[in-house]
Amino acid sequence: xxxxxxxERVAGNQVDWDAGTGPVVHVSCPxxxxxxxxxxxxxxxxxxxxxxxxxxxxAGLVLDEVDDILFASETxxxxxxxxxxxxxxxxPGLPALTADxxxxxxxxxxxxxxxxxxxxxxxxxxxxCRKFHxxxxxxxxxxxxxxxxxxxxxxxxxxxxGLPGGPEIRQLSVGDVGMFKGRLWQEDPTIxxxxxPIGETGAQRLVLVIDPAPAENEKAIRLEGKCA
Length: 228
What we know:
By secondary structure, the chain is an alpha+beta fold. 16% of the residues lie in helices and 25% in strands. The two termini are 24 Å apart.
């Protein structure tokens, strides 16, 4: 796939590069996530705090009482398809959370150029995705609404994780948005990510994952494709 070369600074957006032309870029607004198009960039991070309204709605949410959500939708239909999916999964009316997910889905679609996206909102309680990996997609957008955020490392250090002198494991905070370049766009990944190991802690996470929608003839979702 041919990559679109973008300037290192987009007009009106402040961009703070990690290690100059390294694989990670921090941006100050959602539209600047399109820096993921840059040839050297494998991860674009938008550091943010959740709004008070989203935080209040999440504070009253009982994760044991909701089901996971996985569906594909045209971005223009999300105001209907997303509330329907949330209601079917047992979520109470959460207009601020719904609006936040719609906003992120549209930003993802604007970056990838895909009119149809796949949304997964799930409660994570296990260590099923504890290994660092890159996903079999073009681009994956991840944000954690409750619990520990997604962890990531540079791929060159994968063999020394957990060893003396090994790499520092970086971690997104609650509300942060990470846009990760996948293997369909970067065959030799430079950034790997995983779900934080929480299986023995009793902790829970509420995680949103946005991907381009799979082709109509795609029969199954690979196990690694469900990691965040």
